[in-house]
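Reviewers asked in the last cycle whether our approach scales beyond single polypeptides. To address this, we selected a multi-component target totalling 928 residues and predicted its structure end to end. The input consisted of the following lines:
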Amino acid sequence: MAYKLRRSRIYVPGNRPRMLSTCGLFGGDAITIDLEDSVAPDQKLAARWLVAEALKELDFGKSEITVRINSLSTPWGMKDLEAIIPTKRVEVIYLPKAESAEDIKQLDSVLEKLEKENDIPVGQTKIIPILESAKGIWFAYDIATASDRVVALSFGGEDYTRDIGGERTPEGTELLWARSQLVAAAKAAGKQALDTVHSDVSDLEGLYKNAVMMKKMGFDGKAAIHPNQIPVIHEAFNPTQEEIDYALRVMEAIEKAKASGSGVIALGRKMIDKPVAEKAERVLMIAYLAGMIKEDELPESIRKSIVKEGE
Amino acid sequence: MVKNAVGRDIPEEIAGMKLIPFKGAFAHVPEGRKAAPKLGYVASPDRRDKVIRGIEEAIKKVGLKDGMTISFHHHFRDGDMVMNMVLEAAMKLGIKDLTLAPSSTFPCQEDTVLRAIKTGTLKYIEGGSYRGKIGQAVSSGVFDKPVRLRSHGGRVRAITSGDIHIDVAFIGAPSSDYAGNCNGLFGPHACGCIQYSVVDAHYAEKVVVVTNNLADYPCTPIEISEQYVDLVALVDQIGDPNKIVSGTLRITKSPTRLKIARDAVKLAHITGHIYDGCSFQAGAGGISLAFTKFLGELLEKEGYVASWAMAGTTKFLVDILRKGHVKKVLTGQAFDTAAIESMEQDKNHFLAGIDHYAHVHGKGCLVNNLDVIVLGATEVDVNFNVNTVTFSNGMLSHPIGGHQDTAAGAKLTIITAPLMRGRLPIIVDEVTTVTTPGETVDAVVTEYGIAINPRRDDLMEKVKGSDLNIVDIEDLKKLAYRKAGIKEQKKPDWDDEIVALVEYRDGTIIDVVRKVKGLENPLDKIE
Amino acid sequence: MKIEKEVTVGTEEREDLLLTLKPNPEGGIKIEITGKGAWQFGDEIRSAVESVLKEMGVEDAIVEIKDNWAFDYTIRARTRAAVLAAMGEV
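The resulting structure, written as structure tokens, was:
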């Protein structure tokens, strides 16, 4: 099972050279270079070409390189893609205001055309739709399954709240159902679920509490708008030592049962069924990718799947 | 011309002065004895006869004449009024050809100093900081002989050896009694302490204490005693209290600088320089202030108690002291109101003289006992030489400060700097001007990685297996050049004429600075 | 290709530049560089602008640059955006 670590993604405004130069330094799992809401309409053209040049030139460290383009219903979206895809450096396109499977299919066919024109293996560029309206959340499963390029669903909390005519609260009750729906849709489709930003940059304690809650709800990661937020988000989404220890014991029990030919796997008095086994594998994979355990500490079955991904 | 120990060409003689080229951080052995002023004399013990109202009267009474050398401290920083006051009075009285020998200069003094040069009142500036318009004036060739850049310790050396002969030291004191016992701790314009002026007081021919706050006799604490004081000049203001010290110093918000500060603390910890009982110097700005904060957090986390720290004192260091994570603080300069308050209230907060801090021709100094120091740079080269005094075009930019002294003394000297300043590489092939020699520099921490001086293979051993990003300094330089889009450094825009000599703390010459071609002389803008 | 109108691209932030592209009635390319990096990187800035103008077929233009330590990729990007903006693109 291949797994891509997406605990954090840091938004970088696309028209600010200094921020583009430094964003790769802070260890985010991904950077999201933004051409949409953080760029004023009269700067869209300049930002587009700055981002294209930056993609060709800059080193973003180990972060996954993603770009949030303008919606394809604007005069800018298509032009964004035509400028950035040929750089061959874009790994994921974040599509804002995704509301239907058609939105995804439209993007999919544009990407296919541009990949073919630019000698990029078709399907290599992934899509992460941003669900930030009532429609987007409602049709979440259709959106998630609209294309193989979709690897995750992400949530835009501010715009969603506005769209439903609600109000942001500290407890986040207004977002509870939307988040749950997004997670269920994503996981039913076999994709990841990514949560929205925590806008108070100085409130790291609140961010941590929120991120821990999101992990419990089934999210795989959260967006950041400042480098200081990255280590906090990672700490919240990383497996705990207890989880890692338990997962190792689960895998050991599975190995033992396989070796003895037993059909029933038990750990102590607890039965280990498929969900438990899958969770253990996922926990260990994340722990390894996050640098919490070394490759030789991984059970062989998981180590094998890492090698497969690398090839 | 002779090549010195860092490979720079030094003339053997200039403007009638013989020069000793830099030989190595600890190579030069001094000869001779300390200089000293004439013995003092009090004609009659009339208690009030030192007190005089007004700076002009004081200048006349002390006998300031053409050609003399006058000195000032910089404890009031950009809020200082004493230097300007004295220069204005000297200009008014028509005094000419003075030499100014300050411990540093600040922007608020630039215009007055330049005017004094233009009117002929000032002929030369001996040491201090050549920055801003004063730096530009020197770099454009305003003086007919080269100036000398010195570190804090170097200035003490020059005064005690007689290289600088101060005729009148003007010492701004927030509190003084009628006899001249004075301090920087109390008074409406309190600055914490006036330790930079103590060596001036001890070696100057005449000393004028300038104060706006007459205290009861004896004025305590006694930083400078009446034995050294000729006159106590009473004026209305000696500084701008809002600019003398800061109300609230904040650490940098730049994520890059914060990362560098964190990595520097980590490096110092992993290499065994932060431990229970260690010593450190606290910084007052930029990355070094952030370093102080993160160091405090580490001390707390590990339960260490540092044995002493010296400073540049700020609230951040005071917090560490009050939380019990450092036993004693020695202050040479206070930067905020929290520091001043602590100096008054905390019994484990002490004064440190600048001579005790950094004078290399004494029998020991504080910097020799430091475990770790974190310093900045305008440039660092692949041999770990550091430039703090010129811009890449060769113009004078900043003072040396305590850089040479602390780098030589501390067990671990870390230079913290971003890889680039804007588009300019900070890591270069050859620094424009050598200020601090690479033999005293142990590591460079940038946001793109940490380079360790190959001389320190003990440090290389200690960082093996850690998750610190250790890189070769050559690779940092190559990365910087690649980002800047250049293949090699542009040489500074220099003429042949030497406008400044960079002294090492022992008085030898470590580098020279030349006149910048076509540079506008700021004096031309003055009527 | 001729530049028919004046456009300005970029910001005054560090690592950026303000680039103004204007018609040149006298013909040819004229580049004026001021600002922080002008002395140190004047040659590099000039080359970056010229290479983009050449690639886009611009033969007559005045380019005024106020530099704030911009890297070459930013200079190229702002030049391209300026030419496209002058041609009426958004």
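The mean pLDDT of chain A is 94. We regard this as preliminary and will revisit it once experimental data from Aim 1 are available.
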